[in-house]
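This part of the workshop introduces the protein records we will be handling. The structure tokens are whole numbers drawn from a learned vocabulary of backbone shapes. The record below serves as our worked example for the rest of this section.

===
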Amino acid sequence: MSTFLNKKLRLLSFVLVFFSTALFAVANTHETKEEAFDPGTVILEHIADNHDWHLWDLTDDNGHKVPVSFPLPIILVQTQPFNVDVFLSSEFHHGHSPVKKGDITYIMQGQTIYIANKEGKLDVNAAGDVINEKPIDISITKNVSSMFLVALLMLWVFLSVAKTYKKRPDQAPKGMQSFFEPIILFIKEDIAIPNIGHTYAKYLPYLLTVFFFIWFNNMLGLIPIFPGSANVTGNIAVTFVLAIFTFLIVNFSANKNYWKHIFAMPGLPKVLLIIMIPIEIIGVFTKPFALMIRLFANISAGHIVVLSLVSLIFIFKTAWLAFGSIPLVLFIDVLELFVAILQAYIFTMLSALFIGLAVQEHH
């Protein structure tokens, strides 16, 4: 136990030193440049997806900030005529340089890529919005890279645990197996079986996958340095896809009793069916919608709170505020460790509950 606490204390000390050093450096940069700090823009940039993986910032001799990033593949598709261009995001030089591929010139503004006009520039309407055509962007972004990393991590964990079970059958768990076995048994015995019933085994692989996928991504997102900091489950596109998976499993697994309760609720007067059927149909879609919004909102809120506390240092333009802000950031980060697994549990538990309601037999 003392070894575990020592490791945690060393980790917290490292995070404190890292944040303090980074904040003092950035604070000095802002003082040199005398630029107005916009916390809203900074926070949105940090929680949004990116075409490169930002590592840190350097300052040149003129006091200008020079970002250091890990480039990621850009994959752009046009349909008429069909064309695919693949290159690294570093060719954009963080949005400062256009990229010419054949007869097409691409310009990145923010994190959106446009096709330039014949003069190689962007067209803007009266409201200041860019009206250029956008290619289909299927790039390997920061969030996608993080998901690939988590997928590899999950494969390594589960294959290692399975290998241990095979080598040591009917023996006490050991090593990594001893850590993950209670979690796996908890999902099986306290989530899947009580909510789904005797048919739980069919859905257990999905529940285990979605739990560990959400948990690992949440934990990786709390790490402020590479390969962490990606806001995967705080991206509504990701939570939307996860909710769609649950929606499809629920409705394709549903038995006739489930649909009977929606379109011909037993014991209900026929006249009231006119009101209840639309309500029940809406309920079919609001369940996955609630899953999507709950996960997205809770994870995004944690990142926003942490970044808001850090932004106080730049708003008041004093590095001394770090001595009050950083302890609060560390407290929120520790709280987020609990939120990371709690949100994975809630999504998994509600998915199991919805599946159970769809497959339960009539009594």
Notes: Residues 73-139 form one domain. Confidence is low (pLDDT under 50) at residues 4-34.
